[in-house]
Design brief:
single chain, mainly alpha
């Protein structure tokens, strides 16, 4: 017996699922800062390392925002509610 690929999936249960809040350990930024080499640095090296550090921090925060938005949406869907968030992950990078 085969399943058709175009069939619409139906939920196996209409009972809401109470997904607990996202654990705090996942809601904190745990980005690793750029490691500075030993010794004196030139102005150009300082600027390059600073830029790398800022990019890493921004990407980490963006990824964290996406995780929180995904989990919040999942909680709402499993509970049977429609959740909208003004901070939802929109798939944009800068």
């Amino acid at each position: 017996m085969g399943l058709t690929a175009c069939a619409v999936s139906q939920p196996s249960s209409s009972v809401p699922v109470d997904l607990p809040p996202l654990p705090v350990r996942y809601m904190t930024v745990s980005c690793v800062p750029t490691v500075l080499p030993k010794g004196a640095l030139t102005q150009a090296q300082v600027e390059q390392l600073w830029a790398k550090d800022r990019i890493t921090l921004k990407k980490c925060g963006y990824d964290l925002g996406g995780l929180i938005a995904f989990y919040t949406d999942l909680q709402g869907r499993l509970a049977g509610a429609s959740v909208t968030s003004s901070t939802a992950h929109k798939g944009k990078t800068k």
